[in-house]
From TrEMBL:
Record GO terms (molecular function): metal ion binding; superoxide-generating NAD(P)H oxidase activity
Keyword Ribosomal protein: no
Name listed for the protein in its UniProt record: NADPH oxidase
Segments forming domain FAD-binding FR-type: 274-379
TM helices/strands, residue ranges: 60-83, 103-127, 157-184, 204-222, 234-251
PROSITE patterns: FAD_FR, SH3
GO BP: anatomical structure morphogenesis; defense response to bacterium; superoxide anion generation
GO cellular component entries: NADPH oxidase complex
């Protein structure tokens, strides 16, 4: 009963949102102004146009082809129905039919033109949602031509087009019904036809109005503002009204079945494959509760093979049998388990945390695939599916930018690249990785501290890791950062400040007053003498003693990573970072290739909020402008 009340409350909230704050009109003036200004600069500035084509050429080509097809279909339908209308008028004039003493209004042609566009776009809108089809296309050369990573964006373009065409189609027909209802009496086999009957008294008018009603519900819940700030569950269920939508559309449109047959059949196969993949047994090994409300899942490695940077859809039947949510795989293919790092920010993810680890234990061993009563699966997995991260391996130099939990695809990539550099360096094109991780909360760094420490220790020349703390820092932490730096060696630390260090190598003590150290041990440093011997407590063994300072590195108080120049506080200065990368690329470019026409390329990959993505995209385009000798290729994670 409580869940039913909660759902009803959410639905009432959604109803009020769709009626009074649906997101279609809020900020539309500002959005249009920005859109016009952007495209004006692209067509008036030669360099701006060149850079746009260079950065978004694939997407632009597909969109231009799609627009041309829409224009052609609209003109063809208008012309065809213009000829039909003329013949009908002439015939009825000869027969002396009452009311046919003038030409059918232009609204008929306009309605039919928009109707043909609806046939085309409503059939096409299913294709970008077919994850299996996109995966298959990635394995062929055409996958490198089509902008497959823009599938969600193209899906939205199609949805916006359907909205515009629906408004045009509906208004044109309403004008027809209001001024010339007599034209429809033969169509409806009625001796007299009024405007009301023409609108509602037949299957075409009735299904058309119902389609508009269904679309208002679907589109209102699909706006980004509602999905992210309201209730994702409502979005999920209302979006599945597409079944009713297509059912009504098959009744409403006489010829729609011909457009729908191919995509519809492919989508049915897609859903069958999803159910087959999702029905396999998945054993949950361990669940870890991390800081900042992040849950770390370890699953037994499934039968499918995956690549680093890919993602899967997870379903928990106990929470909701029909909801599937996408999460990036955070483990590398070489690891023993399949892992996910999930931030609990919504209703479904919070329910998952409460179900699998209600006590918020640091580690909880489950090692089961079903609930204790054996009636339900704990988790189902559907995947894996490709993302833009797969293109990382096409570049010699890459910039990986993550914000918060957006680090997960790059955690997998960093592990895999590190493994390849150590075991198969000749088979790997990547030579240098710049990794930038931006966080607001201090506890977020612990998610992948061990991984980043290993990378900085084992591959210091191949990886350059930058961390940015953008949240507030306590005064105590500022003091710890100051006294914990290498510049403060030999300076007595206040009693309330604990300086920490991490052991780089194993050390066997030569006397009883020395500490035994193992690689990875964390040490609380009590005294740093300039002689090279420090005093501290090994947090693993709890022993106190002396140890050589060249066996350890000091750790940053906030990130728990190696203290150094790449630990930043505040937002990145992207111009400086791009300039540093450019200098590295030019200094390491093979002289024999310098005379070639093609500029060296750097891959810029981002997984984070849209504001950061737009900022990085702007810098990628700007820093690639002539006379720049380096081309920065921008890629964004979309799923």
């Amino acid at each position: 009963m409580s869940k039913f009340k909660e759902f009803c409350g959410s639905f009432v909230d959604f109803f009020l949102y769709s009626c009074f704050d649906n997101g279609f009109t809020s900020g539309i003036y500002a959005s249009c102004k920005r859109f016009i200004a952007t495209w004006k600069s692209r067509f008036t500035d030669k360099d701006e146009f060149y850079n746009y084509v260079s950065a978004e050429g694939q997407k632009a080509f597909i969109v231009v082809v799609w627009i041309c097809i829409n224009i052609g279909l609209f003109i063809e339908a208008c012309y065809r129905w213009y000829m039909v209308a003329n013949r009908a008028v002439e015939l009825n004039k000869r027969l002396g039919t009452p009311g046919w003493d003038s030409y059918i209004p232009w609204w008929v042609m306009i309605a039919r033109g928009f109707g043909q566009l609806l046939n085309f776009n409503c059939a096409l809108i299913l294709l970008p949602t077919m994850r299996t089809l996109l995966n298959v296309l990635r394995s062929f050369k055409i996958g490198h031509i089509l902008p497959l990573d823009k599938n969600i964006i193209f899906h939205r373009y199609l949805a916006y087009t359907i909205v515009v065409c629906t408004v045009g189609h509906t208004l044109a027909h309403y004008f027809n019904y209001s001024c010339c209802p007599m034209f429809y009496r033969n169509v409806y086999n009625q001796p007299e036809t009024s405007t009301l009957v023409a609108c509602w008294g037949n299957k075409y008018g009735l299904t058309g109005n119902l389609l508009v009603f269904v679309m208002v519900i679907m589109f209102s819940a699909a706006t980004e503002a509602y999905r992210r700030s309201k209730n994702f569950t409502i979005f999920w269920y209302t979006h599945h009204l597409f079944i009713i939508f297509f059912g009504l559309l098959l009744i409403h449109g006489r010829n729609f079945w011909m457009w729908f047959f191919g995509p519809g059949a492919m989508y049915i196969v897609e859903r069958i494959l999803r159910n087959v993949r999702g029905s396999t047994v998945t054993i949950v090994k361990r669940v870890h509760a991390l800081s900042a409300r992040v849950i770390h899942l370890e699953l037994e490695k499934p039968a499918f093979r995956y690549k680093s940077g890919q993602y899967c859809f997870l379903n928990c039947p106990i929470i909701s049998r029909h909801e599937w949510h996408p999460f990036t795989i955070s483990s590398a293919p070489e690891e023993e388990y399949l892992t996910f790092h999930i931030r609990c920010v919504g209703d479904w993810t919070n329910a998952l945390m409460d179900l699998l680890n209600p006590a918020k234990r640091s580690t909880l061993v489950i090692d089961k695939n079903t609930t204790p009563d054996g009636k339900d699966h704990l988790l189902k997995v559907d995947g894996p599916f490709g993302t833009a991260a797969e293109y990382v391996f096409q570049f010699d130099t890459v910039m990986l930018v993550a914000a918060g939990i957006g680090v997960t695809p790059y955690a997998s990539l960093l592990k895999h690249i590190k493994y390849r550099m150590q075991h198969d360096p000749n088979g790997l094109k990547i030579k240098k990785v710049y990794f930038y991780w931006i966080n607001r909360e201090e506890g977020s760094w612990e998610w992948f501290t061990e991984l980043l420490n290993q990378i900085e220790t084992d591959c210091p020349d191949q990886f350059e890791i930058h961390t940015y703390m953008t949240g507030d820092i306590k005064a105590q932490d500022v003091k710890a950062i100051m006294f914990g730096s290498s510049e403060a060696s030999g300076v007595a630390s206040p009693s309330d400040i604990v300086v920490t260090a991490r052991c780089l190598y194993d050390y066997e003590p030569a006397s009883s007053d020395e500490l035994q150290l193992s690689e990875g041990d964390i040490i609380d440093v009590m005294d740093r003498d300039l002689s090279g011997w420090w005093t501290g407590v090994n947090k693993t063994t709890k022993a106190k003693g002396l140890f050589p300072n060249n066996y350890v590195v000091l750790l940053d108080k906030v990130t728990k990573l190696r203290e150094g120049k790449n630990r930043h506080f505040g937002r990145p200065l992207w111009h400086e970072e791009f300039e540093n990368v450019r200098k590295h690329v030019l200094n390491n470019t093979d002289p024999s290739k310098e005379k070639s026409k093609s500029r060296p390329k750097v891959g810029v990959f981002i997984c984070g909020p849209s504001a950061l993505s737009k900022q990085l995209y702007g810098f990628s385009v700007k820093e690639s402008k002539a006379p720049s000798q380096v081309n920065f290729k921008f890629h964004k994670e979309n799923f």
